[in-house]
Each structure stands twice: as structure tokens, then as C-alpha cells.
Design goal:
Number of strands: 3
Distance between the termini: 6 Å
Radius of gyration: 12 Å
Structural class: alpha+beta
Number of helices: 2
Largest sheet: 3 strands, antiparallel
Strand order of the largest sheet: 2-1-3
Shape: flat
Helix content: 25-40%
Strand content: 25-35%
Order of helices and strands: HEEHE
């Protein structure tokens, strides 16, 4: 939120992660969510939070929402 480009936002996210193997799993304009299961992660996006969560979970059946954000 507040970055001039998605590339700038992604670079900042990875740099501020705090772990050596961080990566961006989803970029979004309105809402995004990340589903997790075991050591697998899938991102989803949507016009609102429920839509983003449903999108993420549809990409990783049996997963749970690990994190989310809306702009």
C-alpha cells in the first residue's frame, strides 16, 4: 500500500521479511490472502476480504488462511 509500482512493493516486502527464503506469493489491488497447508502457500485476491480468502483456499484445498491484507 502506498508504493508507486507493484515491483517496489514486492521488493520492500521481501527485504523486510526477516527470513532468507522469503518470496511474494500474491500481489493485489484491493484484498489479498494467503492460504497455508504444511509447507505450501497459495495466494488469492478479491474485491473484498471474503472473496480473497475464498480465492486463496480454492487454490490450496484443506488449507487455512495464514495472513491477509486489504488496501
Amino acid at each position: 500500500h502506498g508504493y508507486p509500482t507493484s515491483a517496489a512493493a514486492e521488493a520492500t516486502a521481501v527485504k523486510s521479511c526477516g527470513y532468507p527464503n522469503c518470496k511474494v506469493v500474491i500481489t493485489f489491488a484491493k484484498c489479498g490472502a494467503v492460504a497455508a497447508k504444511d509447507r505450501e502457500y497459495r495466494g488469492g485476491e478479491g474485491a473484498d476480504l471474503p472473496a480473497a480468502m475464498n480465492d486463496a483456499k480454492s487454490k490450496l484445498p484443506g488449507g487455512y488462511i495464514d495472513t491477509w491484507a486489504c488496501n
